Each structure stands twice: as structure tokens, then as C-alpha cells.
Amino acid sequence: MLTAHKIELAPTADQVNYFRRTCKTDRFTWNWALAEWNRQFDAGLKPSALKLKKQFNAVKYAEYPWLKEVHRDSHADAFSRLSNAWTKLFNDIKKGKEAHSPMFKRKGRYVDSFYVANDKLTLNERDVKLPLVGKVKLKESPRFVDKLLGATVIREGTRWFLSVQFDALLSVLKSKAEQEVIGVDLNVAEIVCSDGTRYKTPRPLKAMTRRINIRHRRVAHKVEAVKTAVGLGGKAIPKGTRLPQSNNHRKASQMLSRAHYHVGCIRRDFLHKTTTDITRKTQAAVVENLSVEGMTVSAHGTAKKPGKRVKQKAGWHRIL
User: What is the pTM of this model?
Assistant: First the structure.
């Protein structure tokens, strides 16, 4: 059975610096591969992940020498993921499903992560040995000791995690279900089951809106101060320009990141506990085909067709 264990890491400052550079390398490789794929496709060619990878490997160290500072897995896995994304797109189109083309990864708008192959890491009881950084402490021991398939280092807020994939031999204990089938009605405010059980959804973002807004303003004030100091006061930051960051600016950004991470933890905790409780008392759960994402999509609309009651709808979306 394929399963994974997500373990929090306790890296040093130098290791965190390497993790950040490796995540940027993964993003850069993905964007390079997607841009080249689109260019070749528009030119009438038939691009493939293998061809793009060979093309990139032929020029990467000559044109981008800084890639030598990170392990090669970080600028190799993006090609296979891009191939899977295009394959999923074409399969969804054939099946008549809603399909989305792969998108470029914008800085600060995607999950910071990078992949490490199973032959490049050594997982121990209290630490993991990663290429180029050595041993990184684990905050808990791995749950499985079966065949190791690979690992992904992920950043969430100010914390770093190691998601380890295993091919594990698990024995599932089957308990007698209270009901054969149960219906689940998904709503924004609560989840209602056919047996009368109600799960009131938490509203962590609503409770922390004031705190998050305050921290957003603190970060914005520090950014404006830096822009004024470099002569960009009141103007947009030119593309490719990197503003200097003070220690207070870095601390304010970390505090904002921790607040958003706390909201995400509450949501995931509710999701895991609710799904576990439902699956333990039934053999099958029937869920309606409801697009919660569509219910909570932005109501601003476009310039030609602006949305209505935008403020009211934004307040309703904020409770999630």
C-alpha cells in the first residue's frame, strides 16, 4: 500500500538557506520547461518531457552556473511533473471534465517544495541525511520502516516538513459499521449527515481577520519605507527588482506567515477529524456533487461585467 508520513524538520539556519535556494531552483526549472513547451507547441512541434530535459541539461551549467550549488534532483523532477500535468489535461478533455492548463509558478504564490529520490537520502530514527546538507534533525520518528520510495521537502509558513513516501504493508482492522450507507450534505457553515449528525465548520479566518490585517499593514508599511528609501515611493516595483529587506521586515513577514499557517492547521484538523468520524461508522458515504470552490469564488467580476454585492459576498467567503 502506498502511503506517506509527514514529519516536521528542525533544520539549522544554513540548512534553511539551502532549502530556500533549492525551492527557487525547482520553481525556475518548472517555469523554464513550461515556457519552452509552450514555445515548441505553438511552433507546431511535439514537445516531450524527455526531450526538454535533455535540452535543459545541455545548457544548464553554462547558462545558469548557480545550479551547481543545489542537488540535481531539484532541477530534474519538474520535467516529469510537467509531463503528468499535460497528460491529465488531455485526459480530462477527452472525458469532458473541466480542464486547466499548467500554469507558471509565481514567487510567493505556490508551495515551496523540492523532491529527493529514494537513493539520495538516508532516513534514520531521529534524523534524515539529505544531499549537500547532511543530517537534518526530525521532530518525530518515522511511522514506517518499509520500502522507501522518495521524499519531498515542503515549507509551510515558517516551518519545514519532510513528506516521505513508502510502499508499506499495512493491516487494516475492519470494525462493524453502524450504517451501510450514509449521505453527506456539504454546506459552507456546516456538514450534515443523513443520520442527523452535524459538524459545524470552524471559522478560523473570521476569528483571526483582525490579527492578520494588522500584520499585513505592518509588512506593507515596511515595504513602503524601503521603496521610499530607494526612490520608488508610491510607484510599482519594476519587474526583476529586488528590494533590500531589514530584520524587522523579515520578522513581520514571518509573523504574518505564522498566522496564515495557524488558520490552515485548524482547517486541516477539522477535515481529518470529520472524515475519520464519518468513515468509522459507515461502509459507504455518498456526497453530493457540489462545487464549494464555485460557491466561494471571487465576486468582483470583470471590468466590463462587474460583480454585484461584492462586499457582502466577500464577507460570506471569509468565514471559511
Answer: 0.77
